[in-house]
Amino acid sequence: MHAAPMYIAETSPSEIRGTLVSLKEALIVVGTLLGYLIGWWEIDSVGGWRFMFGFSALIAAVMGLGMWWLPPCPRWLLLRAVKGNEEEGWDLKKQASIAHKKLRGNHCSTETAEFETRETWRVLKAACEGGDMNVSFIELFQGVNLKALIVGGGLVFFQQYTGQPSVLYYAAPILQNAGFSAASDATQLSVLLGFYKLIMTIIAVLYVDKLGRRPLLIGGATG
Q1: Which residues have a Cβ under 8 Å from the Cβ of 35 and sit 6 or more positions away?
Q2: Distance CA 75, CA 120 (A)
Q3: Cα 49 from chain centroid (whole Å)
Q4: Boundaries of each Major facilitator superfamily (MFS) profile domain copy (predicted)?
């Protein structure tokens, strides 16, 4: 949940970074919707919940195998190169160029990959020499870092505090308590809830880099 968006953000070009991170969220919503669909399909089966978990296990296995082909993050490699010795640094920079080329696809030339590597190296090198990379844990709670921590932590807290994850987890029982007494009716409506969430997420994916993250965040949180 946390490593995936960090990896995407560190490996994608800035102009599509928001779209790709949002796309990861959209795929989570697709998984939620599939869970609702299988839950509805198997609602009258004894032990039908096993199919729901078993189906997600297959997807997890495919994802686990696919991750073996992911290249290491070039930024992470270059950060190690900055902090390592010269010989090790040269090898890591070469690996970072290969990773850049693999991430950008067939249209990316070796020269372009090496240019990106040099630019990232230059930024990290300057940050290290300026002392920006050598911070202590206590500095997380000081100055601008504290403000960022409060904002980031606050967003996560209020996302949970509003109760929206609980509505997704317990959609069928909530709908049953609301008057749809038949379990099949409640689970069928939960599928509609999943479709609605998917549509809203797709809108976010399409417009996050055009409208910006802040307006979408404010609008979504207000709603």
Answers
A1: 52, 56, 194
A2: 7
A3: 27
A4: 1-223
Q: Which amino acid would we find at residue 64?
A: G
Q: DSSP assignment, residue 21?
A: H
- Check if the beta carbon of residue 50 is closer than 8 Å to that of residue 30: no
Contacts of 62 (CB under 8 A, 6+ apart): none
Q: 170 phi and psi, to 5 degrees? A: -120, 35
Query: Which amino acid is residue 201, in one-letter code?
Result: T
Q: What is the pLDDT of residues 54-76, one digit of tens each?
A: 888 888 899 899 989 899 999 88
pLDDT at 142: 86
Which range has the worst mean pLDDT, 28-32, 197-201, 212-216?
A: 212-216
Taking the CA atoms of residue 171, residue 4, residue 203 and residue 194 in that order, the dihedral angle to the nearest 10 degrees is -20
Distance CA 82, CA 128 (A): 8
Neighbours of 16 (CB within 10 A): 13
Using CA atoms, how far apart are residues 40 and 49, in angstroms rounded to an integer? Answer: 10
Task: Report CA-CA distances (Å) from 125 to 52, 67, 100, 135.
Answer: 49, 29, 18, 15
Please state, in angstroms and rounded to a whole number, the distance separating the CA atoms of residues 43 and 75.
47
Q: What are the structure tokens assigned to 195, written together?
A: 């479709």
Alpha carbon distance 83, 93 (integer Å): 12
Three-state SS at 122: helix
The helix or strand, by DSSP H or E, that contains position 75, with its residue range, turns out to be helix 74-83
